Amino acid sequence: MRAIDSHIHCGIQDPYPPQHINAYLNAVGKAPIVGAVAFPPVMEVYDRYDSSFYDSDEWRRKRNDAHDYLLALASGMKNFRVIPFLFMWNDFAFERLDEGFRGVKWHRHPEEPMYDYKNPRCALAIDAIRCRDIPVVLEEEFHNTIRFIRDYARGVKVIIPHCGLLNGGYERVKAEGLWELPNVYADSALAPVSVIEDFLTTYGHEKLLFGSDFPFGDPQAELDKVMNLPLDDNAKEAVIKGNIIKLTGFTEDNFR
Ligand SMILES: [Zn+2]
């Protein structure tokens, strides 16, 4: 059974830890992973250690280079398919979406510089995402996660990584009623098996995506974790490959 990893960080500018594509492929080893959704590393997008950081030309350059790298991988690799996502920051560079990005990464942790949700370009970016019907991997503080899903980006397909561990916690997202929304998905990266099992029994296998969070998670171990779940083959196939293929606009034929 082949798999696609729905969550890897991949870039050449931030070498700590190494997260270029060959580092990833080495970590995959003999595991049957044939493709991966890739985002630029955070430190190639904004300065996460400067809470007053907003943006600069230098960072815009860095960000563009990081995305160019992913696009080059997406078009230049044989035997492995990189599915590039655009990491949105405060320049809301949605104009780049049509260069081949299949989704968007939207990411910040508490204490990190904030998204300027009031910027008119933020609404334009969300409109651009909505009309392309592409998914957003959303890792934000709890209150911003709620606002994003219920208000700013209502109806947009959202993947909450780590089953919500870094969005306020699985249970809080559950209590808020977000998981049951038809447009909200979860990835399994670094989530405990007990949480994943609860998600699957409550919301079904069509809403869960296998992800590793490389370089912070190990693709082989994260795939084993999902393969060892008590699921039938159809459900397993959906979680490790089928669901992300559908969400990113591919077909099974693209991965044969
Ligand atoms: Zn991650």
From TrEMBL:
InterPro entries linked: Amidohydro-rel (IPR006680), Metal_Hydrolase (IPR032466)
Keyword terms of this UniProt record: Hydrolase
Span of domain Amidohydrolase-related: 56-247
Pfam name, any one: Amidohydro_2
Domain of life: Bacteria
GO MF annotation list: hydrolase activity
The UniProt record lists the keyword Hydrolase: yes
Protein name as it appears in the record: Metal-dependent hydrolase
Organism: Thermodesulforhabdus norvegica
